[in-house]
């Protein structure tokens, strides 16, 4: 641009008009010899699509040419777990909720075979929002149990699209889990990232209330009233927690393909502790930057990207927040640091803003931490670490001063239930808790999901709780937690 | 109706006038005719149904076994592909033995429409029409038309989500107003004109096709659970073809009541 200074104002203006003109004309020669219309892209060869169940996605398409892509998808009606002790009959594309992830590129010719397992009771079909054509394929894919249907389509528009069953009554088929995502990558692929995951929200309506045990039937009335018992990621309350939590390493860039199957609720998708660097709004071509919460309509999707800078657990939620803490719309992304646990906690301390102004926390030095990692922490260390864990993990429900929310989240301050039994408290944090309990004279009948923390973290957080807010000053050790971990 | 009397009637029928059906055969009951508005009739007009006798139970594995023993052309190795697809009697051990996994008195399934129709005709009976089947099946235990009752509809919907009901013996569900068992809760059942109401499977498109049929339920008067149950039956019927043999699809027969009598 060093010549620019020599041009007259008029020249610059002319050049700009010319540039604009070129940009507007779609057929104008471009330095890349790309064929613009995906319909005309030549097909070179054939591949059988690798379909993955959530939270995994198939490998990126990179710079592969447009191909004929064979997709074989099987419909299974099967029993699964909604949450501990609660079963549900899911209707699935490929045996999972959401259904298998399909990854294509623009210009691919997809040959789609939908098979309806012979044991299934019902006919089904598939409407792919990525398909341009009547009903998105629904009519040509309508298939009876024990049969299969094949149809073909060309992927014309890049983006992230929902697919779902559209058999009458559509709402019921979707409510039972018949949805998933199909990605159409642009030519040359999406920009590379370090990790990619597949997350999809859905709302469920059961005959019994949230947490009521046993096999729960679908409740049409509640579905019509849009009164969801469960709002979850990846088909179940623990779809993205515990062993199902997503993982990443510090410094990695993460891309989440997030969909919302509905049937009813719109998701205010948010990751506690992160700002999305980039969001492909509604799964389309518009990219927004620095987004806190992105709206994902039922039957819609978004691609979000962010770099994880600090170790710790990031919490994925529908920020319509009661859904997260009471109905299951809560997932976890565990970010590990390069170093051991103590360093990881140390690093965390730098990134956390403590509104109470607790002063500068001193953590053990890295050198001693390495040796002492598996050992017991001192009371002071536990109180420090415990406060951090509390702020990160328990705070959202049990409130900053442990005061809880009457009838919803029991108090941890001056709590008779807590003080009565240390082992029981350890069990609750380790394994979660549901069912009716009475704390300080108030009844609670809700669900606390199990908290995925290390032994020392649990020992610390409980010690912190017991030594604050008028509790009985019990001290919990890592060994005590370890000994409870295997009991259940 | 005791079976002794039934036997006499049957024998008498067979001997005297085998081709005319004047009275019911054993294990059939009378469904008294009347008028009703089927949920997805062609123009949601009233339909008149004549009185008919209907099998109390769906046809069982043992009964169908006897049928293929008597009629070799319906054995799975002999049957014409035009009349039954590859899933016909899929679980059978061989031509004349059904799978050990199924009870003799559980409903026969994995039979095509042609086979079911032929079975009924050999008995001097026929398959019910969609209207006849729906008419008989809208009864619950106490009333001939229970379609507005929440429990009735919930029962049906929950069956649609329960697997393996074809392993239960016949009669495992409730006895309805007419004395018929298992219309809901055991297996789907073939009807004579199963594809008369065409559901494309694209339910939103079906909405455009015939707004009377589908918009009513799209607006979902919340109590209209019955529409959902019926939706699913009609969708099922719309997805099948006459040579299909499906694991959860069986049949029963009916017989006209001779009005000249
Ligand atoms: Cu479906």
UniProtKB/TrEMBL annotation, chain A:
Record lineage: Bacteria, Pseudomonadati, Bacteroidota, Cytophagia, Cytophagales
The protein's assembly and partners: Homotrimer.
Amino-acid positions noted as binding Cu cation 1 in the UniProt annotation, renumbered to this chain: 124, 129, 164-165, 178, 319
Enzyme class per UniProt: oxidoreductase
Full protein name: Copper-containing nitrite reductase
Known catalytic reactions: nitric oxide + Fe(III)-[cytochrome c] + H2O = Fe(II)-[cytochrome c] + nitrite + 2 H(+)
Binding site for Cu cation 2: 173
Recorded family membership: Belongs to the multicopper oxidase family.
Keywords: Copper, Heme, Iron, Metal-binding, Oxidoreductase, Repeat
Cofactor: Cu(2+); Cu(+)
Keyword check for Iron: yes
PANTHER family: ALCOHOL DEHYDROGENASE CYTOCHROME C SUBUNIT, BLL4482 PROTEIN-RELATED
Single GO MF descriptor: nitrite reductase (NO-forming) activity
Native organism: Roseivirga seohaensis subsp. aquiponti
Presence of the UniProt keyword Cytoplasm in the record: no
Database matches in SUPFAM superfamilies: Cupredoxins, Cytochrome c
Residue ranges constituting the Cytochrome c domain according to the UniProt record: 381-469
EC number: 1.7.2.1
TrEMBL record, chain B:
Gene Ontology molecular function: formylglycine-generating oxidase activity
Domain Sulfatase-modifying factor enzyme-like residue range list: 26-254
A Pfam family per the record: FGE-sulfatase
InterPro entries: CTDL_fold, Sulfatase_Mod_Factor_Kinase, SUMF_dom, SUMF_sf
Protein name, UniProt field: Sulfatase-modifying factor enzyme-like domain-containing protein
């Amino acid at each position: 641009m060093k010549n620019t200074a020599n041009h007259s104002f008029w020249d610059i203006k002319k050049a700009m008009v010319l540039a604009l003109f070129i940009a507007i004309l779609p057929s104008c020669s471009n330095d890349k010899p790309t064929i613009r219309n995906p319909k005309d892209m030549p097909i070179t060869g054939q591949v059988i699509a690798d379909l993955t169940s959530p939270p995994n996605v198939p490998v990126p398409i990179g710079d592969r040419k447009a191909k004929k892509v064979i997709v074989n998808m099987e419909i299974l009606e099967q029993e699964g777990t909604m949450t501990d002790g609660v079963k549900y009959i899911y209707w699935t594309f490929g045996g999972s909720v959401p259904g298998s992830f399909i990854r294509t590129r623009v210009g691919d010719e997809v040959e789609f075979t939908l098979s309806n397992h012979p044991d299934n009771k019902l006919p089904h079909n598939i409407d792919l929002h990525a398909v341009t054509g009547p009903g998105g394929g629904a009519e040509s894919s309508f298939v009876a149990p024990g049969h299969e249907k094949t149809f073909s389509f060309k992927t014309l528009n890049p983006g992230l699209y929902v697919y779902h069953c559209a058999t009458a009554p559509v709402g019921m088929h979707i409510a039972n889990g018949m949805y998933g995502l199909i990605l159409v990558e642009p030519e040359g692929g999406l920009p590379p990232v370090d990790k990619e995951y597949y997350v999809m929200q859905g709302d469920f309506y059961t005959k019994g209330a949230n947490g009521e045990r046993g096999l729960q039937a679908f409740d049409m009335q509640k579905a019509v009233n849009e009164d969801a018992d469960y709002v979850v990621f990846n088909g179940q309350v623990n779809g993205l927690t515990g062993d199902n939590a997503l993982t990443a390493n510090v410094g990695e860039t993460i891309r989440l393909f997030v969909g919302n199957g509905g049937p009813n609720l719109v998701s205010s998708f948010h990751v506690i502790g992160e700002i999305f660097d980039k969001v492909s709004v509604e799964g389309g071509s518009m990219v927004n930057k620095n987004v806190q919460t992105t709206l994902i309509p039922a039957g819609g999707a978004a691609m979000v990207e962010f770099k994880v800078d600090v170790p710790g657990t990031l919490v994925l939620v529908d920020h319509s927040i009661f859904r997260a803490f009471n109905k299951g719309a809560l997932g976890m992304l565990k970010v590990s640091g390069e170093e051991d646990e103590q360093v990881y906690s140390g690093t965390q301390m730098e990134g956390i803003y403590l509104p109470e102004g607790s002063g500068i926390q001193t953590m053990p030095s890295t050198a001693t931490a390495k040796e002492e990692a598996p050992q017991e922490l001192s009371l002071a260390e536990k109180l420090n670490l415990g406060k951090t864990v509390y702020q990160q993990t328990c705070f959202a429900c049990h409130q900053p001063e442990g005061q809880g929310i009457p009838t919803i989240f029991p108090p941890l301050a001056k709590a008779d239930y807590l003080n009565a039994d240390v082992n029981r408290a350890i069990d609750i944090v380790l394994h979660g808790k549901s069912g009716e309990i009475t704390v300080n004279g108030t009844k609670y009948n809700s669900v606390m999901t199990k908290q995925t923390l290390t032994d020392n973290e649990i020992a610390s957080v409980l010690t912190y709780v017991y030594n604050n807010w008028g509790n009985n000053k019990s001290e919990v050790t890592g060994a005590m937690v370890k000994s409870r971990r295997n009991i259940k | 109706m005791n079976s002794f009397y039934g036997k006499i009637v049957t024998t008498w029928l067979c001997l005297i006038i085998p081709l005319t059906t004047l009275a019911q055969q054993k294990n059939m009951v009378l469904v008294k005719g009347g008028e009703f508005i089927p949920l997805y009739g062609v123009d949601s007009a009233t339909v008149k149904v004549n009185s008919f006798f209907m099998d109390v139970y769906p046809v069982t594995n043992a009964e169908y076994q006897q049928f293929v023993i008597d009629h070799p052309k319906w054995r799975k190795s002999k049957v014409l592909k035009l009349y039954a697809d590859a899933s016909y009697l899929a679980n059978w051990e061989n031509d004349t033995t059904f799978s050990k996994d199924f009870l003799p008195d559980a409903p026969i399934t994995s039979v095509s429409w042609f086979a079911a129709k032929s079975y009924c005709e050999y008995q001097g009976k026929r398959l019910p029409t969609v209207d006849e089947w729906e008419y008989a099946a809208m009864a619950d235990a106490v009333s001939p038309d229970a379609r507005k009752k929440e429990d009735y509809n919930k029962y049906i919907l929950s069956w649609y989500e329960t697997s393996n009901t074809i392993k239960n013996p016949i009669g495992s569900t409730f006895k309805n107003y007419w004395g018929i068992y298992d219309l809901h809760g055991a297996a789907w059942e073939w009807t004579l004109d199963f594809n008369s109401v065409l559901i494309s499977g694209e339910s939103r498109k079906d909405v455009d096709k015939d707004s009377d049929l589908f918009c009513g339920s799209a607006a979902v008067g919340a109590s209209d659970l019955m529409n959902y149950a019926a939706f699913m039956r009609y969708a099922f019927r719309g997805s099948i073809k006459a040579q299909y043999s499906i694991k959860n699809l069986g049949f029963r027969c009916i017989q006209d009541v001779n009005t000249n009598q």
